[in-house]
Amino acid sequence: MNNKNTYAGIPEEYAKLDTAKIVLIPVPYDGTSTWQKGADKGPKAFLNASENMELYDIETDSEVYKQGIYLADAIEEKSSPEAVVDKVHQLTKHYIKKNKFVTLFGGEHSISIGSIRAFNECFNSLTVLHIDAHADLRPSYEGSACNHACAVYEANQKTNLIQVGIRSMDISETRIMNRDKVFFAHEMATNEYWMDDVIDSLTDTVFITFDLDALDPSIMPSTGTPEPGGLFWYETLEFLRKVFKQKNVVGFDIVELCPNDINKQSDFLAAKLYYKMLSYKFSNTEEDDDYEHVESNSPFAKLSKFKDQDDE
Q1: Burial of 211 (0-12, 13-18, 19+ CB in 10 A)
Q2: Which CATH class is domain 7-288?
Q3: What was the pLDDT predicted at 142?
Q4: Which helix (H) or strand (E) holds 182?
Q5: Higher pLDDT residue, 312 or 247?
Q6: Domain ranges within the chain, ordered by starting residue
Q7: Cα 309 from Cα 10, distance rounded (Å)
Q8: Of 31 and 105, which is predicted with more confidence?
Q9: What is the phi/psi pair of residue 145, to 5°?
Q10: Partners of 207 in the beta sheet?
Q11: Staple partner for 255: which of 1, 77, 106, 132, CB 3.0–4.6 Å?
Q12: Residues 107-131 pLDDT 10s
């Protein structure tokens, strides 16, 4: 996978690591999925769709790419699920320590074990906002704790894990999950206040892991395990807009795009979703803000939330 081009074809001046506020890490990995394969092709399809997307966001009246978006080299590690998670963890933490707003695009959901681990090591009182059709709470699956079915098990143990949109799980996961922090899709459908209820359960500092199968398959058919009864586009945007406005979102990943050669709508939706999330984060930020020091002006962290750790 060639990542030498800039994200979305943006001008080189906005794509340099030293000046970009945002880093995008592609992770084309699909080693543990158990039904439809192809999530390893997700980052390339997402990047191709992004190149055909308008870069002015009407809703926020902004061009967020001018904040600077550095497209990192893809993580090509495939030797084992554990090695992939470790590489994602190391590289994510590396860019966090460079004071960047770090985002990732998978790949299957096991990559989030690494990204969540990195953010939890760098930020105090972290909430992981897990938007997904599946609970992903198994301690291990098919002989590995780094399986897509285990994506947020560690987060459930070590962070404030809030799960939204869940509508498929194994009965064993009922004994693991914190029921008070799970928003099931069938309950959300009859609760007009679910967005506020979710936000009330978040700490100030939030990392979002967004599995695209959280969305209804009528608008997002290209996932490995599509589930009926998911979120729709405008309610998703309304929810995300509220989260970004009311909380300090420090980073996010998007996973489980499983593209096909015939229908490109899912690729384009994923591209728009990523750009929308950045637009919500940075819409009130001036392009020339100085984010040189975490202590005063980080785009993603307040000093009280950032753990003072030496680089590993």
Answers
A1: buried
A2: alpha beta
A3: 85
A4: strand 182-184
A5: 247
A6: 7-288
A7: 34
A8: 105
A9: -85, -5
A10: 128, 251
A11: 106
A12: 999 999 999 999 999 999 999 999 9
The four Cα atoms 92, 94, 99, 103 give a dihedral, to 10 degrees, of -20
Contact assessment for residue 130 and residue 162, using Cβ atoms and an 8 Å cutoff: yes
CA 107 to CA 37: how far, in whole Å? 10
Contact 87, 118 (CB under 8 A): no
The predicted-structure confidence for 242-288, as pLDDT tens digits, reads as follows 999 999 999 999 999 999 988 999 999 999 999 999 999 998 765 44
> CA-to-CA distance for 297 and 291, rounded, in angstroms?
5
pTM for the whole structure: 0.91
For the beta sheet containing 69-71, the strands, ordered from the edge strand earlier in sequence to the opposite edge, are 69-71, 22-27, 101-106, 248-255, 205-211, 126-131, 160-166, 182-184
Which tokens belong to 210? 């967004």
Distances 148 to 38, 85, 184, 261 between C-alpha atoms, Å: 14, 11, 19, 24
Tokens 């996978």 locate to 1
